[in-house]
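Kindly review both lines to help learners:
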Amino acid sequence: TPANKPKVKEIKNTLRTLHGMECHIVLSDGTKVHLNAESQLTYPICFSDKERIVQVEGEAYFDVAPDKAHPFIVQTPHTSIRVTGTTLVSGAIEISSENKDYELIPNQHFVYDKNSRKSTVSNVNTELYTSWESGSFIFINVPLQNVMSYLSKWYGFKYTFEDDAARQVQIGAYLNRYANMNPIINMIMELNMVDIKQREGILHISYKQ
């Protein structure tokens, strides 16, 4: 009988990207995924369960294929995200974290702090978080240490801060995704707030007194 029909085990693939690497993939249901640098996606070769479940570590952009009968769920190490609209930009989502549920509408941002185990929801400009998907980077009042950490995933460079003041320099910029870091380093230097010197393949960043 159908009730006794054995469940088909989903065969899964895991896709990993290195620094400077990104990947586009179309899942078996037609969902499009753009996986950013230094990220990981685990997905079934063919969705066969009631729910379409994938696992993500890092950063990914989803354009989810509509299918109300088979909810699309993105699991991360600390949250479970159920897509109730069509995309993570234009559709609503429900997030489960620490046994609490949060419902997000477009232009809202969910943050989970794994140290304090607290979650917050705020209104944001989604372009700030998805600009990489269209080939650019946007930083608005972001500490330089965060900018360098993010960009190093793309360009694979090593860096060190000589002082805390340099780490906290606020950056505001709309950057094209250049072939290398040189134009971005030049832009940061033009702010006249930090010195950047390269020694033995490492960028040394110090605050200008």
